[in-house]
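Internal tracking record. Fields below are filled automatically when a chain is submitted to the structure queue. Please do not edit lines marked as system-generated. If the sequence contains nonstandard residues, flag them in the REMARKS field before resubmitting.
Queue: standard
Priority: normal
Entity type: single polypeptide chain
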Amino acid sequence: MSYQRPGIAAKLAGTSENVPGGKKSNGLTDTTFRTLGEFRTINDIRTLIINFFSNDVPVTIGDVGVVEDTLEDETTRTFVNGNRALTLNAYKQSGSNTVKVADDMRSSYARTFLDILKWAKAQYKLPLRAPGK
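SYSTEM-GENERATED OUTPUT FOLLOWS
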């Protein structure tokens, strides 16, 4: 049996893509649907079938390699006034109102920040605080 890394990588990439699932228009608003291709556990990756052979015997990622949960190397750091910061990127859809998108982002920022803060405190048990406090 021979497996090529590009083929396995392509299978993983294709399985974990978020794919457009359709759009529903309701007068003034459009709702876009996407199918979320996410792995929820390491075992989901380990048991992903990458190929079938002549008698329909499934071959999984775990059959051809080791699947481990590790950390990715840090590639970017953000600082504001010398303090480490979190960067959020937002992208608007083509044709949407830029000012409305910016206003909506500002109005949801506080709620998003508090959610992230609560998650980070629970996840890392760090003494995190809101800016300016």
